């Protein structure tokens, strides 16, 4: 494996996309636990802003004996109390939280990282170095990575983020993944578009479908919801950008239910013979009305 060099991770937009991150105080995507932490801050600010504190009482209010489990409430204030007494759920840290993850657009600077992640696949199904250079160079805005960055103690030197999982994709004009969509154009270094038998080979700038070629996670980080977190962030990003009519991919039988849980529809056996075949076509259609 090639040595990984130190590269800068820029926040500059790439083809209209800005890198996603958890710089706003959230792990990605925003979970119930994140919302809970946000609510705690909101409630604290609201109490101070309104000059109220739960332990304070109005000395002019009529005193009344009640059980410890109850609070006397003026009928005029009934509608306010559900707000003050809401309690956010207790935060339970997950294995994903321990990674301190952030999602970012990938570039050719991440080729070595992606090759390491791709080892999660059988050898015949892995993306080659040349294909990574092609896809990350031609359409980096369609390729996302989930990184982990440890919390450093004061005085510790900065470390390079570790790529934990990635989504690698290109555009295609077909409504499903084909062998030509999976191929590397022979003249990719000199030609922007290669067409064979009326179909583009590899990336098609004018394609209305996003073809996912790889969703992979480092073996040591599998089982930590990395794949589902990354795919949910990816789907949301593509849908909100309104840059495609659908996302298409191929998967083996044991992963069909995973993709169906994310909204993909099973379209039956794929004609694609990449990696030996045996794939199923899965499609996530966006509402384009």
Automatic annotation (TrEMBL):
Coiled coil segments of this chain: none
Annotated stretches, region: Disordered: 1-25
Alphabetical UniProt keywords: Acyltransferase, Transferase
InterPro entries, A to Z: Acyl_CoA_acyltransferase, GNAT_dom, SNAT-like
Recorded superkingdom: Eukaryota
Biased composition (Basic and acidic residues): 1-10
Pfam families, per the entry: Acetyltransf_10
Name the record gives this protein: N-acetyltransferase domain-containing protein
Residue intervals of the N-acetyltransferase domain: 150-289
